[in-house]
Amino acid sequence: MLGEYRIEGRRASDIAASVERGVGTGALVPGQLLPPMRELAQTLGVNANTVAAAYRTLRERGVIETDGRRGSRVRPRPATTARGSIRVDAPAGVRDVSNGSPDPALLPPLGDALAEVARRYAEHPGLYGEAPVDEEFARLARAAFDADRVPDGPVGVASGSLDAVERVLAAHLRPGDAVAVEDPGWGSLLDLVPALGLRPVPVPVDDDGPLPEDVERAIRQDGARAVIVTDRAQNPTGACVTADRAHALRRVLAAHPDVLLVEDDHGHGIVSQPLHPLAGVTDHWVLVRSVAKAYGPDLRIAAFTGDPETLDRVLGRQQLGPGWVSRLLQGAVAHLWAADAVDPSAVSRSYGRRRDGLVRALARRGVPAHGRGGMNVWVPVADETAAVARLIAEGWAVAPGARFRMNTGPAVRLTVSFLSPSDIEPLADAVAGAARRGVARSFG
Questions:
Q1: Which residues of the chain are modeled with pLDDT < 50?
Q2: β pairing state of 376-380 and 72-74
Q3: 14-26 residue pLDDT tens
């Protein structure tokens, strides 16, 4: 039925990851029939309910489809970013609080920056053979890293955080390697890991970030060769790594210096919480900062730094592909940085008023919610599908939690970017109504 490919795993998340890995590598082709649940359970020596849970996860992610007695098959056109297909399109008249975008009113105008780089380009057009990283961009990025006590290292530029993370993982890992990822976590990253042929190992998260004992477990028991941590404004929960949590995580990582550490600080520029970097305790590490949330998603720029060997591998491989990220865009971002075009304190306060206001309003209604930093609020619910449907009926489109979770319980994510103060109470009423029946346990 599956040819030479063998589905593996003892837990539902591992079985689902094995199937996703097969789809990502092409070993499982579109339309291919998967083993019946009881048959696969017997082969793996697990309970049939475990396989049923794995298949349910794969259906939620858009990887497979089930047609009654005809069984489960790989989707005829499996989504390359399966979690991205788990979404709710807002019908006419329904407010969309699902998409995770920043508030356009808080993004700086780009006219002066683009005009300045155009003027410079007229005097000195960018040609082949020039340095891939703009000198001023590198200087300002490194200065910002230094201010946050990020260990010294070269500076690279990628087309956004996900591009940087992909390049770093590919530089160090091989298909089949395990990667510790946050659960719940960034949906695109949870898609990327199996797409690279890697095995995601879920690590629970609370408001302070990944749980150290579970990071230790992922490394020792599951053999994780890389750990990915979001420092601030974690998507979808808003978690921010505190000083105490960072100390505990550094202690765990220091005992495993051969593990690759990847830090995503996409909240830089939109949060007030200080950065507590983990970098430097392992032999190989990278810290990535995208400008998407603070300066605009379409700029497609992320600065990253790390140990010299990793940066050398990543930048060398980059030169064999795209070569470099547009120096025009790098120059525009450098101009915005130098001009202090974004006031992080003001942006943080603006998101904080909306985010904290919604969390408090839900608490008054007996609904626990999470959102320490950034623009998202995570609300555990008893029945995710029912909650999403009810909220649409109430006039609100939210993001299903299935886009962001592996083993974590059902939830919904709300983005506060487009909320006004007058929206908070009506939205809280609607969410409370959708979540009131048997509020689910918190994440982490």
A1: 79-81, 438-440
A2: unpaired
A3: 998 899 888 877 7
Span 381-391, pLDDT tens digits: 999 999 999 99
Q: What sign does the CA torsion over 118, 321, 146, 297 have?
A: positive
SS3 of 224, please?
Answer: strand
Residues of the chain by 3-state class (helix, strand, coil), percent to 5? 45, 15, 40
Residues 294 and 148 sit within 8 Å (Cβ to Cβ): no
Q: Which region holds residue 100: left if phi is over 0, alpha if psi is between -120 and 50, else beta?
A: left
* Residue 93: burial class (beta carbons within 10 Å; 0-12, 13-18, 19+): exposed
CA 87/CA 183 separation, integer angstroms: 18
Cross-strand partners of 157: 303
For residue 324, what is the DSSP state? S
CA torsion 226-232-233-235 (nearest 10°) is 0
In the block, residue with structure tokens 């993001």: 399
Within 10 A of 317 (CB to CB), how many other CB atoms are there?
12
Sequence-ordered list of residues with C-beta below 8 angstroms from that of 135, at least 6 positions apart, any chain: none
Q: Are 19 and 63 in contact (CB under 8 A)?
A: yes
- DSSP 8-state secondary structure symbol assigned to residue 5: -
Of 247, 254, 303, 314, the C-alpha closest to 280 is 254
In the structure encoding, which two tokens stand for residue 281, read together? 């305790």
Strands (E), 13-123: 64-66, 72-74, 95-96
Instruction: Let me know: does 113 contact 341? Beta carbons within 8 Å.
Output: yes
How far apart CA 201 and CA 217 sit, in angstroms, is 10
Contact 189, 229 (CB under 8 A): no
Alpha-carbon span 444 to 406, nearest angstrom: 12
Pairing verdict, β 260-264 and 285-290: parallel
